[in-house]
């Protein structure tokens, strides 16, 4: 039987993050989400901007006070700011890095304290298939997501002796608000390359996260788990 743990999902108010939060709640965990807008119904929510170290610390302190030490962290919060690399302003590049990569680092570093004391933990970074394949117009996003893989594997080596696993899930084309604005021709082009010919669902990603955070997966660490219908096969 799965032991009830305290889980924190960053960016958990919608899309993939919300699906993950609901999946972990269904598994019996005490689930908190960070959000910057409206709090999702039925879940413990705390305001947090992951680019602000003080806000990250305050969010963790609130969760620890009300739900207990964070034993499962899903670093999902992220943004896009696409554009041609030759004319991409430095602020557009660094803002994505600060949110998607450094923001995940801030949360992981804060979570590790309690996990080390408890000698148990599950950290899952939500990356992207483009971290491995690249994508025109997304140099900043791809760089940030690729950085998560290096971060997760380094932490996996450092923390494995403490009972803490660290893995990265790399979604492909998933139906969310972030992808809703993609041109139909671009979606069709992507689907033509996917062995499973459909757009993924947030629930597909959530199922992989639930598995990686289970008691039974303590020997799975440093892994990159694709949830992309086979789009990135071979990377």
What this model shows, in words?
- This protein has 235 residues and is of the alpha/beta class.
- It has a single domain (6-227), classed as NAD(P)-binding Rossmann-like Domain (Rossmann fold, 3-Layer(aba) Sandwich).
- It is built from eight helices and seven strands.
- A seven-stranded parallel sheet has the order 3-2-1-4-5-6-7, sandwiched between helices.
- The protein is globular.
Brief account:
The protein has 235 residues and is an alpha/beta fold. The protein is built from eight helices and seven strands.
Write the layout of secondary structure elements.
Layout: E1 6-9, H1 15-26, E2 30-35, E3 44-47, H2 53-66, E4 72-75, H3 90-118, E5 121-126, H4 130-133, H5 139-159, E6 164-171, H6 177-180, H7 184-191, H8 202-212, E7 224-227
Any descriptors?
globular; Rossmann fold; 7-stranded parallel sheet
Low-pLDDT segments, ≥5 res: none
Report the C-alpha radius of gyration, rounded: 17 Å
Q: Fraction of residues in helices?
A: 40-55%
Structural classification? alpha/beta
CATH topology: Rossmann fold
Just name the CATH architecture. Answer: 3-Layer(aba) Sandwich
Mean pLDDT over all positions: 94
Pfam families: adh_short_C2
Protein name: 3-oxoacyl-ACP reductase FabG
InterPro entries: KR_dom (IPR057326), NAD(P)-bd_dom_sf (IPR036291), Sc_DH/Rdtase_CS (IPR020904), SDR (IPR050259), SDR_fam (IPR002347)
Family: Belongs to the short-chain dehydrogenases/reductases (SDR) family.
């Amino acid at each position: 039987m799965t032991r009830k743990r305290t889980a924190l999902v960053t960016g958990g108010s919608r899309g993939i993050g919300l699906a993950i939060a609901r999946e972990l709640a269904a598994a019996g965990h005490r689930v908190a989400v960070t959000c910057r807008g409206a709090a999702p119904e039925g879940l413990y929510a705390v305001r947090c901007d992951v680019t602000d170290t003080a806000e990250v610390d305050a969010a963790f302190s609130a969760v620890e006070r009300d739900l207990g030490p964070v034993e499962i962290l899903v670093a999902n919060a992220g943004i896009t700011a696409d554009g041609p690399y030759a004319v991409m302003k430095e602020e557009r590049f660094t803002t994505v890095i600060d949110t998607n990569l450094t923001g995940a680092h801030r949360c992981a570093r804060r979570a590790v304290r309690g996990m080390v004391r408890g000698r148990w933990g599950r950290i899952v970074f939500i990356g992207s298939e483009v971290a491995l394949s690249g994508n025109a117009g997304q140099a900043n996003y791809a760089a940030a997501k690729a950085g998560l893989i290096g971060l997760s594997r380094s932490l996996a080596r450092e923390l494995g002796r403490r009972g803490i696993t660290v893995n990265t899930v790399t979604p492909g084309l998933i139906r969310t608000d972030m992808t809703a604005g993609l041109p139909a021709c671009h979606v069709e082009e992507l689907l033509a390359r996917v062995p499973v010919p459909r757009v993924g669902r947030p629930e597909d990603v959530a199922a992989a996260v639930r598995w990686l955070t289970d008691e039974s997966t303590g020997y799975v660490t440093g892994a990159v788990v694709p949830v992309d219908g086979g789009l990135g096969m071979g990377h």
